[in-house]
Amino acid sequence: MSEYMQTYQVKRVLTHNPGLKSFRFDRVIEAEPGQFLLAWLPGVDEKPFALSGVFEHEIEITVKAVGPFTSQFMNVQPGDWVGLRGPFGNGFQPIEGMVLVGGGIGNAPLRYLAQRLREEKLDFRWVIGVKTAEDLAFRDELESMPECMIVSEDGSIGKKGRAVDVLAAMHDSEPIIVLAASGPEAMLLAVHGFANTFSPDIPVQLSFERYMKCAVGLCGQCCLDGTGLRICVEGPVLSGHQLQGVTEWGRPHRGPSGRRPR
Amino acid sequence: MNIAGIELASPLVLASGIMGLSASSMERVAELGAGAVTAKSCGLEERKGHACPAILPFGFGLLNAVGLANPGVDDMIEELRTFRLQSEVPVFASIFGKTVDEFPEVAARIAEAMPSMIEVNVSCPNVASEFGRPFAADPALVGQITRKVRERVTDIPISIKLSLQCLSLAEVAKACADNGADAITAINSVGPGMIIDPNVRRPVLANRMGGLSGPAILPLAVRAVWEIAEAVSLPIIGTGGVETAEDVIQMVLAGATAVGVGTAVYTRGLAAFSSINSDLHVFMQERGINSLSDLKGAAHV
């Protein structure tokens, strides 16, 4: 696979719930966890999705229905053609002792990161945060993984609470030496805030999302205000150092026109 | 070097449409060695542009149909002002209009941000279904737009961005010169072209067709600059497929004063600016060339 458009037939669809599915394609690629593909539904649109798994002969993306495009994606069946290109961007670097923190669909790329950590025989812990049990993909697989701690905001699965809230207790039981997080921006910034309460800071790898059109660093849609870093090229996974100087945290993201809602 | 009275530390100008939505992204390119940066084309109103895929690499460059997506002139004024507060590098605005009369409106608005130049994009190839043929196809329309913009904006240089989609570049260039343009930017992306997916049997770009850019169009752009330089004495920002110092030299020999760099940000990364700058320096030093302007148009023998 490359940045050129190629279409592939969906090989398998894993339905976690009617609005949360994983799609597997017969494709072998070299990709780091956290890197993303552009997926094109012919006649609809094209959007970025992080890989949720890379297997011997298959790759997988996991899609949650949140808007018109992802809702259409729920209708995709085995045998349907989907355009894929990538992988794009910079991913996570697997490190011994890593603590993974995921929020909702942001757990998808962490599943691939966890797979890599296991393959490389590196110890890790993974806090899987969801709003409610329904939002959890790969439930059986994750519940049986000793490294995983599941937390839900409504207490419908695992411990009640938010992923970030359990970090302090985890640190007390065994010091956290590096954090990898993927999920809503408020969660990422909270993880960064937690990491910054220590001296020296706990190193972080945080995966951000922005609207994008090209994924190759040209369209400017995903550039962060303050530094101009491109989420599609220098990101989506940024270090704490790369967060310095960014002035757009907490503000709405630029949309397809490039306008940032006020 | 100097183009239309604007001093540039490097002949390389970030082309419009590339990393030009925000002050921060343009600043980054400026810091990496662009002599000037051009913002994304803006119109009176916000436009979402076409759905994706909108930008497609295909092996010899890019095919794109972004469709003049832009946040609208008000937001762009803010970005340009922010840029100007933070960078000494000249920034060019780029404007488009849906009608001849919209161009001077947008130009007068964007002039409030005091860009070093206003590029007038009469040549977007990707909005034909909405706007009809590019204005750049018709010398009379280009002349009218140039005159109307010139009448409204007297204190900022204007450059008209032209297209190969016309019968005679010489005629269009003369229409620019006769109506008060200070410079010409040539060329916009070429075509339009189309890529069809063999499996789903439909065009890949959401807009079906899009403008071609990158190394594939360099010879077309060099020829266009040549023709324009034969026709008028306006300074030219030679744009289209430039990736190396040698490409810059070709453009200058054809008659360009400055050179646009766009798709090279994809093919070579943002380091393209600093690499081309240093390679140019070496090229000139090795050949005892003191100034690029000594080479301007030198291939016209």
Ordered list of secondary-structure elements with their pairings:
The complex is a heterodimer of chains A (262) and B (301).
Chain A: E1 6-17, E2 20-26, E3 36-41, E4 45-54, E5 58-64, H1 68-73, E6 81-88, E7 98-103, H2 107-119, E8 124-130, H3 139-143, E9 148-152, E10 159-160, H4 167-173, E11 179-182, H5 185-196, E12 204-207, E13 237-239, H6 240-243
Parallel strand pairs in A: 7-8, 7-11, 8-9, 9-10, 11-12
Antiparallel strand pairs in A: 1-2, 1-6, 2-5, 3-4, 3-6, 4-5, 12-13
Chain B: E1 2-3, E2 6-7, E3 12-14, H1 23-31, E4 36-38, E5 55-57, E6 62-64, H2 73-86, E7 91-95, H3 102-110, E8 117-121, H4 128-131, H5 139-152, E9 158-162, H6 169-178, E10 183-186, E11 190-194, E12 196-197, E13 202-203, E14 209-213, H7 218-231, E15 236-239, H8 245-254, E16 258-261, H9 264-267, H10 272-286
Parallel strand pairs in B: 3-4, 3-16, 4-7, 7-8, 8-9, 9-10, 10-15, 15-16
Antiparallel strand pairs in B: 1-2, 5-6, 6-14, 11-14, 12-13
Helix pairs in contact in B: 1-2, 3-5, 5-6, 6-7, 7-8, 8-10
